[in-house]
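Supplementary Methods S3. Input chains for the assembly prediction are listed below.
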Amino acid sequence: MTTRSTITRHDLFTGALAATATIAAAQLAFSSETTIYYGVAAPLSGDNAGYGAVWKKGMNLAVDEINAAGGIKGRKIALIFEDTQSDPKQAIPVAQLFVDDPRVIAELGDFSSPASEAASPIYERAKLVQFGFNNSDPKFTLGGSYMFSTTSTVVNDASKIADYIFKHLGKRAAVLYQNTQWGDAGRVEFAKRFTDLGGQVVSAENYLATDTDFRAILSKTRNANPNGLALFSYYTDGALLLQQAQDVGLHVRAVSSGSNFSNEFVKLGGAAVEGTVLTVLFFADDPRPDIRRFVSAYTKAYGEKPDAFAATSYDAVKIAAWATEHGGADRDGFYRAFLSGTAIPSLIHGPFAFGPDRRPVRQDETWITIKDGKFISLH
Amino acid sequence: VSSFVDPLVTGLISGNTYALIALGLSLIFGVAELVNFAHGSVFAFGAMLGWYCVAQLHFPLGVAFVAVVATTSLLGLVIERVAVRPLAQAPRIAALLSTVAVGLILDRVSQLIFSPERQMFPNLLPNRSFWIGDSRVDVLDLTIFGATLASVTLLWLFLTRTRFGRALRATAQDRDAACQMGVNVNALQGVAFALSSALAGIAGILVGMYDRNVDATMGFNAGMEGFAAAALGGLGNLPGALIGGLLLGVIESFGVTWFGGSVRPIVAFGVLILVFWLRPSGLLGAVGTTLREPMTGTFFGQGRPVVLQHWHIIAIVLAAAVVMPAFANSYVLRVATIVAIYAILGLSVTLVAGTAGLISLGQAGFFAIGAYTSALLVKSAGWPFWLALPGAGIVAAFLGALLVSPTLKLRGHYIAIVTLGLGAIVSAAILNLTPLTGGPQGISDIPPPTLFSRPLVSPRESYWLALVVLSACTAIVVALQRSHLGRIWRSLRDDEIAAQSSGVRASSYKSLAFTVGAFIAAIGGSLLAHQYTYISPDVFGIDISILALMIALLGGMSNVPGTILGAIVLIGAPELFRPLHDVRILAYGILLLLFVRFRPQGLWLYR
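Predicted structure tokens for the full assembly:
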């Protein structure tokens, strides 16, 4: 831009308009009439880019498998990835982009609940299913009738963790939780359940998701002398917490939800995460044949074992494909298939149905632990 | 005893790394009179490179240190040459924006080169520990102390025993005098950047070792903490930076021990604000020194100003209100709605920073107060949207006047750091005031705005609403700028001492500027809340405050149409770059850097 030229916002918007139109035209030209599209709103850059990268692996594997097997009634499926950085101000335009794209019959994502919930009204009004398969905030699916999720809510996990600690570790529990909507909900439910059982919560310390030095709250937890540790963390901060717990001399078994179930947890945590117990939706060494098939396909494709984020994203595409096959390749058919399906096949939940809160009705208990740097089944 | 020794040891160690980062920031500030916003990213780059050397290339730790120091010093030289030196004649605030762009680019490049995922930093030290009473001290702790001590000693020797060091100190003391004495100030500035970046790189490796993990985006928070530490000690004062870093680490550590992890920002910035209240130039900063004020003489007489005629304005309004909604698709209208909301936020900065010269890095705090007030008034108290909108503005204006009272004695960069602290405190207060704000749960199901009991939800209606509110805010800001009040604000901006000598009561007028600015930011926040329908504390981070400042800066700082243009570029460009996928944010950073490089006075000139 030179000193003399000026731009008006009119020019800029005309430019933006033209550019958008060109992109849309280009996309249309590439697509064959027979392809079925799903939109994916995901963090492909920014702070959560790591999770987005794993999603891409899991989802692309599912697409390749479905297409290799002849697609859905002969039609190929494809995903349109849009980067939102899990930022609400980018999730809204992306929602509008998907809603306005007649090819898109359902949306998958976003990663974080604030981003998903900001976009929900747009999906709701357009009657486009927002399949937030990673959104564990109970309020997410209650934001409208087109919001569905397959992930376990933290409330569910928290009461299982309370039962486990009370039964196996002792009556004095400490809680460490991320001070987010998710972690706080977990802490509240855990404390309620654990006290009801007759136990005592001897300390409950929170931290910010961006913190990296936890020694202060860990020293405090150590001084409270607990028998067991309920951990509401994500795998990055969870691994960090347990590493530093060793450093301050807090040697007590941690029990946590599936949010810590990731190869990264073991990779980041090393020896410090040995013996940690987790309640999970998915376990890669599960002997069930369809899980074995998924794990070997994933390992073959990417040279590493899938984690829960890979499995749930893979599963989300498979569930979407099922809904398309049974309801029809349009928005309304997809929605009706979700509502009426009584035995929706799923890698993680087995055949399931969505309940009135639009989450799977039944949730299994799968307990795993870490031994010699590997996740193993506790059963 | 352990309840006292543990937090002390923990605090001293995290303080060590704050000190290393703060030293670099202070060194650069001394020589270039610039707060380097890319500094945190250099730190993160050093950490990621250290991880790469140790974990992927299996270098011994010593070799990794050498590699990181060499690379980050080089990086510092490049940043100085590409992003800072070309702007030597431009206002300092332009160079600041330029370093923000470099930070964005560095973070993304490091994600692409090394890894977007958080990585474990292998433990290469013996796992030995010693007990002091009930408290543990590890080999790791001692290594970090040792490495910091060695770096600081080397820096001190360099500054006091070498010719370069002497020249560097002379430049920091008085740049013009040093220049006249034959000191090559440009070359020295390069040396200062290289040295500082090397310190940041060392801090990166140390934090990687201590936290046992590294992440490409970990620099932002570290940079902010470093900035706070440097300011605490007195910007440009190296012993001050050292003490500020250690002090901040210890205070935070005790705060977290006593009150829990999520009050960290309240404790850290609360102490900071208290210190500035008592000592406006930081702990060791000399009182009464005349620094080049970041805003003085900003953007005047550089290039040809653009004057909007009446018919221009009519044409623009027609285009925005009629042509746009008629031809643009819903997606563009959604983006335009968000652009308008952020333009309102930008306008609040235009008034506070552009007109009154008070650089605010805390506008996200008032944005948040507006959003929460409006959401609660409509959702819990049942107010109609059209009453809640001004209501949010008034509440924020009151809180704003109250909150900024400690800053009124301050000047220049210190206002920036204290407002940054205010933004962080507001966000932390919202997180901790659970009964009122829902705490981390946020507020969901916020009703959409209504007009005659009809909800305004379609893209076109949302856009029109945002446009109407934006126009009203624009009118307010323009009217204020043209008024007698606006002239007084400008006189304060241009020369506070002269204005005070003419009988202007500076602190009252500064307070008024912040109050009006808070009102406008809160109006934007109210629109945001009803557009998002869900708000939580993490929606209003420091990044939003920086975005607001960038919008105003890019627009030419005191220029209303320019600010709107700035919002269009900064919010619109990432959307426009969607087809670029992986390099989208990289392209955005480069675009920003080029804008500042070739148009340091902002996109739009004005009088």
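The first helix of chain A runs from residue 9 to 30. Chain A touches chain B through 84 residues (CB under 8 Å).
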